Predict the structure.
Amino acid sequence: MADFFQTGAIATLHRLGPPNVARLEAELCAFSAKTPIALVLPCHAREFGTPALERIVGELRDADFLRQIVVGIDGADTAVKWSRARKIFGVLPQETLLLWNDGPRISKLLRGLARCGFGGVAGKGRNVWLCLGAVLSADVARVIAMHDCDIANYSRELLVRLCYPLANPALKSDFCKGYYARVSDRLHGRVTRLLVAPLLRAMRDITGPHPLLEYLGSFRYPLAGEVALRTEHARRLRVPCDWALELGVLAETFRHCAPRAVCQAELCDNYDHRHQSLSPRDPARGLHKVAREVALAFFRSMSAEGVKMGAPLFSALFSAYSRHAADALRLYSADALINGLDYPRHDEELAVQTFVRANHEAADIFPAPADAAACAPAWVQIAEEMPDFLPALRDVIAADSRARMAK
């Protein structure tokens, strides 16, 4: 049984006792009649044929509460790969829209977007952004849920618990973030445990109490990829295109949603997905790159809230971060010991050293203006300045789905 502690600025919806998923799913089906739900799945071609994706598709076939599923396909650089994607997701009984992000039609649309000054580099963030546009252009759903396609132990309970707070009108939620434990024979989630949490505490040491820090510190797993939001929020959302997607979405939600309308839900007992290497010597790869982009997004979010992010603050911040990261190593060592888990101390210390470097690298980048290509614009802005784009996206999706399948 989980604890029932409430973390502060937002509501925490715990997974208490044996879950009655059938009850939740039945209620969700009833709620979805008035509040249609769409699911967004950012997917990469490297996930085709994996047990994780096969399991996810199998579970979704019985998700009767979903009105629509939108799958963004990255990495399908040939017609054969695109045809394979259509076969994989063609078994879903729900209205299913597939986006061939590397296909000639969407590529042409994106080039037109770039000529008008709207950026967005290729990657998961742009994939998510295009999928949100597809949901908005279809104008069917009122709630949009999103999760990745590499969840090895996926069950429909995860999606039910993610959607429920927004579908149930009694809860009055506009945004839900998922959280969970990530444990095998050891603790996972190094970027959250050893970078984000100590960095938030260090910033609080320097600036004192701050609404954004209290808000971000209330999330148990701020880098979780599972979120649900209302379509009106999706229209206003600027989507980071780099590895800061999850933290950037939280910062955008802080700007647009009152804390009382934001919640986090415990989605499952444990969570397993594809792990990344640390890459301590190469800042362009692995968790090193993730950490640098997350830190940079955090610095820019604090700056946008009026905090002067100059050299004196960075010097004090990094000193405080090192102290809090050392404390985290001690705390998680004890946590692992009492639970009989492996605790590779050297690997954990190497992660902290890598994250220290990532913080300094982010600080070096910070004074430069934010690259417009690193963040896709809000769809409400696109609708105002390029009113034909969303209808064109809808037509392109339909045309790609009608095209003859390659063998």
The longest strand covers residues 66-74. DSSP finds 15 helices and ten strands in the chain. The beta strands are 11-13, 37-44, 66-74, 95-100, 143-146, 175-179, 227-230, 239-240, 262-266, 375-376. The chain has a mean pLDDT of 95.
